[in-house]
Amino acid sequence: MKKESGGSLFRRLTRLFKSGPKLRKKISTSDTAIAVPDNSKSSGALLFQKSLSPTYATITSNAYNMSERLMRYQDFNEMQYTPELASALDIYADETVPQDEKGKILHIYSDNEKIKELLEDLFYSIVNVDFNLRPWVRNLVKYGDFFLYNDIHPEYGVMNVFPIPVNELEREENYDPQDPFAVRFRWVTLGNRTLENWEVSHFRLLGDDMFLPCGSSVLEPARRIWRQLIWIEDAMLVYRDWE
Questions:
Q1: In the beta sheet, which residues pair with residue 24?
Q2: How many Å apart are CA 50 and CA 44, to the nearest integer?
Q3: Cβ contact 93:141 at 8 Å
Q4: Do 210 and 201 contact (CB within 8 A), yes or no?
Q5: What residues contact residue 168 under an 8 Å CB cut-off, 6+ apart?
Q6: In sequence order, what are the residues at sequence separation of 6 or more whose Cβ sits closer than 8 angstroms to the Cβ of residue 238?
Q7: Angle ∠(28,33,38) on CA atoms, nearest 5
Q8: Which of 63, 155, 168, 172 has the smallest count of CB within 10 Å of its CB?
């Protein structure tokens, strides 16, 4: 078998995962089952996004630009030092990844023993979910986003994963007219280096369209009240100084 070079493997990964994994769905009929790719050219979602691409791009660029993200992340960093909010983040993290009676936080089920073995090696030996998953979840609920850089070797696959600070990456969508579902990332602090979709694992909490294409923090509803509390405390200090 001809050995695949690293460059050709990366190009193939980019082609496969530029707009997400290629899922196939079966449509059952009276005669036969037809396998249809989920991003088929006849897809209504594809036509809809193609027609609204300029509008969607405008919304995401204006409503959730980088400067606003940085302001929000700065507020979330300060909010976590409020005892009640810090406890809320801890509860989210603890309830999301609880341990069972054997001390495991992740279970892998598969009829294929080879797949199960590979996934257990990935999650427990490489990713080390026992140690990393809880702080990752806490950061995810705090910011609404969490990024992992996937260190992939052409021969051995995923060698390691590295958390990337949320204020260093930008998620880009609708940049390719031929593929409206294409996604890539831009590493702002490294000279706007472009990262392909398969190089970054982006976890996000969706729920508020105003923050697309990024997620929304669980602290967002308390952000205004927290700022008002800070202003009230500052005003009281100023008033006492004048007395």
A1: 37
A2: 10
A3: yes
A4: no
A5: 187, 188, 189, 190
A6: none
A7: 80
A8: 155
- What's the rounded Cα separation, in Å, for the pair 97 and 131? 11
> Are 215 and 204 contacting, i.e. CB atoms less than 8 angstroms apart?
yes
Dump pLDDT digits (tens) for 220-237.
888 888 888 888 887 888
Residue 180's contacts (CB-CB under 8 Å, 6 or more residues apart) are 19, 46, 49, 50, 53, 174
d(CA 12, CA 15): 5
pTM: 0.70
210-214, Cβ contacts within 8 angstroms, sequence gap of 24 or more: 210/63, 210/64, 211/63, 211/64, 211/144, 212/59, 212/60, 212/63, 212/64, 213/60, 213/64, 213/171, 213/173, 214/64, 214/69, 214/144, 214/145, 214/171
Q: Give the up-direction half-sphere exposure of residue 120: CA atoms within 13 A in the CB hemisphere.
A: 11
Q: What letter would DSSP give residue 122?
A: I
Q: Are 69 and 214 in contact (CB under 8 A)?
A: yes
**Residue in the block written with tokens 């952000």:** 223
Instruction: Quickly count: other Cβ atoms within 10 Å of residue 192's Cβ.
Output: 9
SS3 118: helix
Token pair recorded at residue 232 = 């009230």
Q: Which residues contact 175 (CB under 8 A, 6 or more apart)?
A: 182, 184
| pLDDT tens digits, one per residue of 110-165 | 899 999 998 988 888 888 888 889 999 999 999 999 999 998 888 888 888 899 99
